Amino acid sequence: MGKSNRIPKATITRLSIYYRQLELLEFDGYRMVSSEKLAWLCQVNPAQVRKDLGYFGEFGVRGVGYDVIDLQAQIKKILAVNREWNFAIVGIGNLGSALLEHQNFPARGFNCVAAFDNDPLKIGKPTAAGLSIRDIEELEEAVKELNIEIGFITTPATAAQSVADRFIMANVNAIVNFSPTRIIVPDCCLVENIDFTVKLDTLTYELHHELGI
Amino acid sequence: MGKSNRIPKATITRLSIYYRQLELLEFDGYRMVSSEKLAWLCQVNPAQVRKDLGYFGEFGVRGVGYDVIDLQAQIKKILAVNREWNFAIVGIGNLGSALLEHQNFPARGFNCVAAFDNDPLKIGKPTAAGLSIRDIEELEEAVKELNIEIGFITTPATAAQSVADRFIMANVNAIVNFSPTRIIVPDCCLVENIDFTVKLDTLTYELHHELGI
DNA sequence: CATTGTGAACTCATTCACAGCG
DNA sequence: CGCTGTGAATGAGTTCACAATG
Q1: Residue A5: its pLDDT value, please?
Q2: Are residues A63 and A106 in the same domain?
Q3: Nearest-5° angle of CA B187, CA B190, CA B194?
Q4: Chain A residue with minimal CA distance to B186?
Q5: CA distances from residue A15 to A5, A8, A54, A134 in whole angstroms, order as listed
Q6: Confidence label for B5 from pLDDT (cuts 50, 70 and 90)
């Protein structure tokens, strides 16, 4: 049974990746999959797949492999994505607007229920998804009213910390930070950073140092 | 002097983060910074900062700290962002369009020089940034013509692998993959994945298992 | 004398190798 | 017999602790 040892964060990330590949396998008509095949699709070691799953239970059949549909259900439960989640976006520029309309979110049970900005020219404007852009000052009340559980920050770097502070004040303790800076939050708050330029920098480092470009 | 031991990938990521904070420190008028202060701003251990920098040289002054301006220049050189880079985007949906207009890229020397799609309704349309959307069939010739060094994939998951294959065929061996799937590439090709839904999944996992939501 | 630079200790993650089992 | 599940071995990355030094 699921041992509650300390589980590596990388394991959680991989579970999500396994899930994506299981969806594709199901679509392609597979009913069972071995750790070897799943590992290859995700570009990891087969033992890694088995160990990752082993943290949470025994989901396979020895000599056969894993049931493609059942394993999806198990991973959804582990990741707590067997339910819907409400999020809000603060900073409705190019990126914020794109995320508002991003189809992958609702498809996976993540619903954007509010959009905020501090620009008077934007406040009140309708979004393509049918929301109206609200004043950031309304954040606290909207959180209660709409049950917002996750906050997206898509502002410039200079505004990110103050938006994070507002989210925390409003009792939103899970933040996805798309701004190119690090925000500082109390221990009770979870943050995932998605910083495009950091990813580009690592790519150029490798281009230069590994491929000699 | 810079030892060419194996350098952890996490070190490279952190160098990029240090650089962001150094920019802000310079803006705030700081001339010197200690590893302790920089570490706090980046939410890491001070010894980590010193060790990361130590892989590449001795940039500090004992008893004093690091020169804010000089250290930026050193990190830029290490990350190979002391020059400009050309990239192209394939898949001009919401996200692709937002990235086309994303101000952070040109501000850091990353220039989007071409946009591609396979949708006849989009091909030929002008983008806000002044480019015209091109047919994906033109990728190879555009790569030569425009010196495209990095490829962004912002297509749906189902198209990601075939776009990756095209990039590689066209000799673009650095890819930023924004699609919610893993692409498989030869060793000569570098890939950075930016998968929003994986980040959301890790957040919901932690919300559920650590905060009990 | 405050702070860097770094070998050594430690912690965490991955991979191996094989026992266990359908 | 083949593939999972897992303890043990290995490897990688982080933190400590202190000598070196401007």
Answers
A1: 66
A2: no
A3: 135
A4: A43
A5: 16, 11, 11, 36
A6: low
Q: CA torsion angle for A111, B191, A153, A176 (degrees, to 10)?
A: 60
Instruction: Report d(CA B191, CA B189) in Å as an integer.
Output: 7
pLDDT tens sequence across B71-108: 999 999 999 999 999 999 999 999 999 999 999 999 99
Q: Both B13 and B117 in a single domain?
A: no
Residue in the structure block whose two tokens are 């109206």: A132
Among A57, A79, A101, which residue terminates a domain? A79
- The pTM for the full model equals 0.95
**Any domain includes B54:** yes
* Contact flag B180-A20 (C-beta cutoff 8 Å): yes
What SS3 class is residue A184?
A: coil
Q: Do A201 and B101 touch (CB under 8 A)?
A: no
Residue A183: which CATH number? 3.40.50.720
Identify the domain boundary among B79, B97, B128: B79
**What is d(CA A189, CA B33) in angstroms, rounded to the nearest whole number?**
28
Site of tokens 């954007």: A112
What residues of A are in contact with residue B19 (Cβ under 8 Å)? 201
Provide the number of structural domains found in chain A.
2
- Tell me the residue range of the domain where A73 lies: 4-79
Residues A75, A81: Cα–Cα separation, whole Å: 8
